[in-house]
Design goal:
- The chain is built from 20 helices and 14 strands.
- The protein is an alpha/beta fold.
- The protein has four domains: 129 residues, Rossmann fold; 165 residues, 3-Layer(aba) Sandwich (Rossmann fold); 75 residues, Helicase, Ruva Protein, domain 3, CATH 1.10.8.60; 71 residues, Orthogonal Bundle (Arc Repressor Mutant, subunit A).
- The strands form four sheets. It has a five-stranded parallel beta sheet, with helices on both faces. It has a five-stranded parallel beta sheet with strand order 7-8-11-6-12.
- Helix 3 links the parallel strand 3 and strand 4.
- It starts with 8 loop residues before the first strand and ends in a 9-residue tail after the last helix.
């Protein structure tokens, strides 16, 4: 379903015939489009306007499609980009996904498939726009508890500051929300806010991710890439889970903070870094310093201003407020009537310990919006793991409902049956079936959005992309 009004689709290819074919097909579908013969032309137009979706060839004279992808992602991170590439150009396809491409389109392509892919990208673009509008309407951080009011006062006091901030708080307590609020109320608010979870990126990729790399710096580095520090120039860089940063990266980060410059991987020219760093961790950094796992000099560089974010069990009076907010948000996202949590159920939720903090409460509210049978939610409608939980024992799960043990019994019976028949490679076969079921259902749940499905499954974007190809389940990504 194409929404109206809609910005044009940009087609960027030095091959005139490709531009002509796509223009005719899009015009036939009443989808507006603009044509560009080079990445340079598209980059110039990007100064004045932005497309609904960008479709670009990967190899062109002058700037490449990957460079165009990078420029688009810096200015419009939610804009879907489809990269056209030759079948044989696997490395480029991988690089396109690493650069944030929505999808890649192998040449030669079937025109109908191309239009279907563009339609999916348009829908993705519309969803991103709606999500951004919802985020703008919503309050930044909710909290009436005294401990949260103290956090709000600190954000206010720091509103004219460029100082480095270290946020301490348990996982799921909202450290990135606080970092975004610090940025939004700072002199750097008009510039980029770039977030990176240092624990979620493999050690050998983290250096390139932070500092970028020069072309040819390592196998697969076909183009120069700007890292997160350059993307955050004049803005704010949020380094989440800083306590897990490898020792050699700690040394490089210290050098940036002390010298105000860095080198790309494989580079010889220093790059200036005018970036405010906000770091966060759930760990006791002082203890990690004592244990020799974190550099003391880096700790002191980061610990200029310390903000402690309370856990949800320390601000129980905020749980009803947050629950009502998350129920309304989930209903709006799903396009359904909001459900109401009874006072008894709210009191029950407020008495739980919530080891997963605000994130766990948000997941629970989403589950209730989807799964609760009635519009008025009572204690009996809550996920069974929460109903079994006692506030003192720290149980509570993630709000996804109890896992029925029957499937485990069925699995054990299947393994026993196969072993009895002398079958081999049982693990490989069952693992493929298990992963296929996981990914298919996650993609179905997210309407084919790979990145969101990967997050729900706890996978990286590259991992889910590889598994979709290995398990041959691309056809299930509709919607």
């Amino acid at each position: 379903m194409i929404h109206d009004p809609m910005k044009p689709i940009w087609i960027v290819d030095d091959d005139k015939s490709i531009r002509w074919v796509l223009e005719k097909a899009l015009t036939r579908e009443n989808i507006p489009c603009k044509l560009f013969a080079s990445a340079r032309e598209a980059l110039q137009a990007l100064e004045e306007e932005a497309p609904q979706v960008l479709v670009s060839d990967i190899r062109m004279p002058g700037a490449s499609g990957l460079e165009l992808l990078q420029a688009i992602k810096e200015k419009h991170p939610g804009l879907p980009v489809i990269i056209m590439t030759a079948y044989s150009d696997l490395e480029s396809a991988v690089a396109a996904f690493q650069g944030g491409a929505f999808e890649y389109l192998p040449k030669p392509f079937d025109v109908e498939n191309a239009i279907e892919l563009i339609r999916r990208a348009i829908e993705e673009s519309m969803r991103e726009t709606a999500a951004e509008e919802t985020a703008e309407e919503s309050p930044e951080i909710l909290g009436a508890a005294p401990s949260m009011q103290e956090v709000f006062r600190a954000i206010g006091r720091l509103s004219q500051s460029h100082a480095t901030v270290l946020i301490n708080g348990e996982s799921g307590s909202g450290k990135e929300l606080v970092a975004r609020a610090l940025h939004r109320h700072s002199p750097r608010a008009a510039k980029a806010f770039i977030a990176i979870n240092t624990a979620a990126i493999p050690k050998d990729l983290l250096e390139s991710e932070l500092f970028g790399h020069e072309r040819g710096a390592f196998t697969g580095a076909q183009t120069m890439r700007r890292g997160r520090f350059e993307q955050a120039e004049a803005g704010t860089l949020f380094l989440d889970e800083i306590g897990d940063m490898p020792a050699e990266l700690q040394t490089r980060l210290l050098r940036v903070l002390s010298d105000g410059q860095f080198y790309r991987v494989g580079g010889h020219q220093p790059v200036k870094a005018n970036v405010r760093v906000i770091a966060a961790t759930h760990q006791d950094l002082e203890k990690r310093v004592r244990d020799g796992l974190f550099r003391e000099d880096l700790f002191h560089r980061l610990n200029v201003i310390r903000l402690r974010l309370p856990s949800l069990r320390e601000r129980r009076e905020d749980i009803p407020l947050l629950a009502k907010h998350f129920m309304a948000t989930s209903a709006r996202e799903l396009g359904v009537e909001p459900k109401r949590i009874s006072e008894t159920a709210l009191k029950y939720l407020a008495a739980l310990d919530w080891p997963g903090n605000v994130r766990q409460l948000e997941n629970t509210c989403h589950w209730l919006t989807v799964m609760a049978p009635a519009q008025n939610i009572e204690v009996a409608d809550l996920p069974s793991d929460l109903r079994a939980a006692k506030s003192a024992d720290g149980s509570g799960g993630t709000g996804g409902g109890a896992v029925d043990a029957d499937w485990v019994k069925s699995l054990e019976q299947e393994v026993t049956r196969r072993l009895a028949t002398g079958e081999t490679a049982i693990g490989d076969d069952l693992t493929r079936q298990f992963e296929t079921a996981l990914i298919k259902n996650a993609l179905k749940h997210t309407g084919g959005r790979r990145i969101e499905a990967a997050q729900l499954l706890g996978m990286g974007r590259n991992t889910i992309t590889r598994k979709i190809a290995d398990l041959k389940i691309e056809g299930d990504e509709k919607g």
